[in-house]
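Amino acid chain
________________
===
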Amino acid sequence: MASDGEDLVKYITEKVVVYMESPRDSRSRHRAGRQPWSQRWFGMLPLGLSIWRSSRKVRDKG
């Protein structure tokens, strides 16, 4: 049982060290290529709803 906890701590430590040793600009480039969380979790539905809502606002004003 204790080895599982040790393995988890070792894994997390390795991930943190790799993250800290990577250059800052490479981390920001990696982050810039990602999709927003709403699209990742719900697909195109949030985008479609936002476009539909904005078109209704424009139509209601004019």
